Amino acid sequence: MCLIVFDWRPEAENGPLFTLAANRDEYFSRASAPLAWWSDTPNVLAGRDLVGGGTWLGIARDARFAALTNYRAPHEMRADAPTRGTLVADFIRERACSPLDYLQRVAERGAIYNGFNLIVGDFARRELAWYCNRAGTAPTLLAPGTHGISNAVLDTPWPKLVRKRAQLASLVAGDAAPALSTLVELMRDTEIAPDDALPTTGIPLERERALSAAFIETSQYGTRGTTALRVSVRDARLGIEIVERSDDDGSHRLARPGHHERAYTFDAEPAAALTR
């Protein structure tokens, strides 16, 4: 997952608590499965990396959530580092650990991984936390508001992040619960940033340009899927809606730019007592 924007309203008494739009960027050759309930862990709803076994974004029936982006530092990449996608899967499988406690445990061994950003949430607890193993800071609970993560630390002002975060903020200001299809379309944006606005991350300029789009298309690498997620307070329950539009119809035969959609709606289990 390489671009995530989200609106976080932990004090919401009714309506949206968390609204997310995210793009997953990956090599087309890397096998993955689309969004589905996992047969071996039935409480987990996520896509799946069929190489490493983890995932880039997922949510559990009890409203535990996690998502990950890679941190772009090409000269620091180690081929022998463990897969980062298990960090997402491990949190949403667990039931007893708070988001901050989990990230503190991850931080103890963070140096063994290639660079990553990890956000984890327990919406029944009204907690959302972030950690980056290249930020030099401890895991932290996130303040309310609209945030974004790409392939640098939280809210780093890369052009696509700034643009999509602002667009999401404007969207939810006008309509607190926009259609998930609107959130998906928000992210299907191929605009390239001007050269003078590009970050310098250690990759060639031509590739920096290509990766500056929210929705990436190159010959071997690009945006493999877009996810929209909303968690809402409905009386004494948490309602969860999620849509994924991807390039995989389930057969692992890719169709670009990806129009296969899956949608799920459910109430969190148990029907949450929303104590803070």
UniProtKB/TrEMBL annotation:
<feature type="region of interest" description="Disordered">
    <location>
        <begin position="249"/>
        <end position="276"/>
    </location>
</feature>
<protein>
    <submittedName>
        <fullName>NRDE family protein</fullName>
    </submittedName>
</protein>
<feature type="compositionally biased region" description="Basic and acidic residues">
    <location>
        <begin position="249"/>
        <end position="264"/>
    </location>
</feature>
<dbReference type="Pfam" id="PF05742">
    <property type="entry name" value="TANGO2"/>
</dbReference>
<dbReference type="InterPro" id="IPR008551">
    <property type="entry name" value="TANGO2"/>
</dbReference>
